[in-house]
Each structure stands twice: as C-alpha cells, then as structure tokens.
Amino acid sequence: MLKTLEYRDGKLYIIDQTKLPTEKEIIAIETVEECFDAIKKLKVRGAPAIGIAAAYGVVLGIKDLEEDDFNSFYNELKKISKYLGSSRPTAVNLFWALDRMEKKALENKYKPVEEIKKILEEEAISIQREDEKICKKIGENGIEVLKDGYTILTHCNAGVLATSKYGTALAPIYLAKERGWNIKVFADETRPLLQGSRLTTFELMEAGIDVTLITDNMAAMVMSKGWIDVVIVGCDRVAANGDVANKIGTYGVALLAKAHNIPFYVAGPTTTIDLKTPTGKDIVIEERGREEIICGFGKQTAPSNVKVYNPAFDVTPNELIDGIITEKGIVRAPYDINLKTIFSGAGGEN
Ligand SMILES: CSC[C@@H](O)[C@@H](O)C(=O)COP(=O)(O)O
C-alpha cells in the first residue's frame, strides 16, 4: 500500500499529490512554511491527512524555538498553530489536530520546554498511528453496506492518499478485496482538480481493484443504467445535524442517488464530526483561485477574463444521507441525537 505521509529523522516525507498519476515524487518537508505550502497547494490533501500533516507542521515549527520559559514558548506555538490553521478552512481535522497539539503542550506546562518538544513530536506520531487504526475500523464497519458483486460509485479521493492508510470511503472496498469479493468501482473524475481521476483510479489500480473512470456529468447515466449498488464518499466536516461538507459535486451525486433509489453513505472518522458547527450552513467553504477552472493543468479552456466561482466543497443535507460510517459504527438519522451519542461512548450500529 502507498505511504502518504512518513515522519523520519525530523522530516515529514509526503507523496506530492499534485504530480500524480504521472510522477510518484516523494518530497521532504522540513519547515512549517513548507508544510503550510504543501497543505495549501494540495500536495497533501484529504481531511485526515491534512490534520496529520499539520500536527507534524507544529513539530517542525517549534523545533528551533529558543524560548525556554513555557509562556513564551506557548505563545510562539499558538502563532505557528494559527498560521497552519489559515492554510485551508473547511476540513475540521486540521483544527482538531492543531487543538490537540496545543492542549498537549498545556498539559505539560511544568516540564522543561525541550521535553515538551519531544512530547509534541510523540503526539503527532500518535495522531498518525491512531488514524491508521481508525480507518481500518471504518473499513470493518463500512463493509456492512457492501455485498460480494457490488459496484460502488465514489467522488473525489477518500482513500489511502487522503489518510495515513486504508482511507475512509475506500477502506471498506480494500477490506472487501482482501476477503476476495468481486467489487467494482466507478470513480467520478471530480472537477476541477481531478482527485477522482488522478488519485482514486491510481490508488485503486495499484491495489488491483476494478475501477472505471467517468466524468462527473456521467454519473446520472451510469446510475440510470442500474450499474451502481451504493455510493460511498468521504467528508471534510460533519455538522451536528448531520449535514456533510465534502468535495464540490458531492451534493449533486447525493441528489442523483436519491433519484435512482441508491443508498448514499458518507465515511469519515469521528475527528471529522464537528458538534460545534450546528448545520451545514455554518461550515466555511473554501473558495479557490480562478486559474483552477479557466486554466486547469496548464491548458486554457475559457476566456482568461471570464467571471469564475470556484467553491472547493459543497454541503449535502442530512436527509440525503443513509448513514455516516465512522470507526465507532454507522450513524443514521436522527443525526442530531445519534452523532452526540457516539461521542458519549455508545457506538452506532455495527
Ligand atoms: C478521507 S478524505 C475526505 C475528504 O477530505 C475528501 O473527500 C475531499 O473532499 C478532499 O478534498 P481535497 O480538496 O482534495 O482536500
């Protein structure tokens, strides 16, 4: 399986996802600025992977701080965290990971600063290791919505490349493959940055999984032919009422699934559930540059001065979602009650 992120000898190594699928280039990130740049430019992307990268970004940022009293060190740490948090606004895992790093520092405030730096490095490593276990569990819970012989449609990339291992939406598919099931996948191309065609097809093909690429506007036709048994997508933020922000186009796929009576599932770790955000309307949606639409991948496809609107995510209302597959089980409606329940210790259905 691919290694999306690897922390070694004080450096973070990532696959530069902007180069995929033609080049598999591993780059070393050595400074907080390089980490910010990698997140902003989508060299590392996908909600869980962004959170993990940011945690390591904190480690890289504090490495050379000379402050030796806790308060001055903590002020600098907060600045680093705020800076990393300004890289992308929608995936809540980014803020969750930064918050966890800040809290860990505070918990250890009476220890020498050099020791706190070491503790924070261990914390970032734990965040990554936990994500791996969580994704595996999402796969085990999510396989419940699959059957041998199923064809799944997915949008964007919520696979290995978006996490530390296994992925979220793709985790049940990897598990089904391990069990020897005959599973097929249709991957939406995912305009404008083509995470579906560049990343999802790439990683599924590497794993020997039968995948067919379609452009986003072909999903309705493929569904109408009866070829899709279930849709599974990832998520960047789940609001307290179960509305889900995910890659632009997800909402359309959910509407199409409803129109064709196809179950629509969202998969994500509980770290993507944000009970502090009441509804999807409260989620900040990242807007990206005009060049991604008028000149994607270097080829001009629209007049250079045309007006452009380029939201990177949309919100799927909870009523279109049959279930949210988490590491604690599958959460179903009523989401406002059942999402809170999983944080109180009781799981969803398994
Ligand atoms: C497990 S990743 C889930 C989501 O982060 C994924 O579906 C997505 O929308 C990624 O968007 P991206 O802009 O590529 O970071």
Automatic annotation (TrEMBL):
The EC class name is isomerase
This entry's Enzyme Commission designation comes to: 5.3.1.23
The UniProt record gives the binding positions of substrate as: R45, G46, A47, R88, Q195, N246, K247
The family database entries (Gene3D superfamilies) matched by this protein are listed as: translation initiation factor eif-2b, domain 1, Translation initiation factor eif-2b, domain 2
Query: Which terms in the Gene Ontology molecular function aspect does this entry carry?
Result: S-methyl-5-thioribose-1-phosphate isomerase activity
In terms of domain of life, where is this protein from? Bacteria
Pathway membership, UniProt: Amino-acid biosynthesis; L-methionine biosynthesis via salvage pathway; L-methionine from S-methyl-5-thio-alpha-D-ribose 1-phosphate: step 1/6
Q: Which InterPro entries match?
A: IF-2B-related, IF-M1Pi, IF_2B-like_C, Initiation_fac_2B_a/b/d, M1Pi_N, NagB/RpiA_transferase-like
Q: NCBIfam families per the record?
A: eIF-2B_rel, PRK05720.1, salvage_mtnA
The name this protein goes by in its record: Methylthioribose-1-phosphate isomerase
Native organism is: Keratinibaculum paraultunense
Q: What high-level taxonomic lineage is stated for the organism? A: Bacteria, Bacillati, Bacillota, Tissierellia, Tissierellales
Q: Which gene is transcribed and translated to give this protein?
A: mtnA
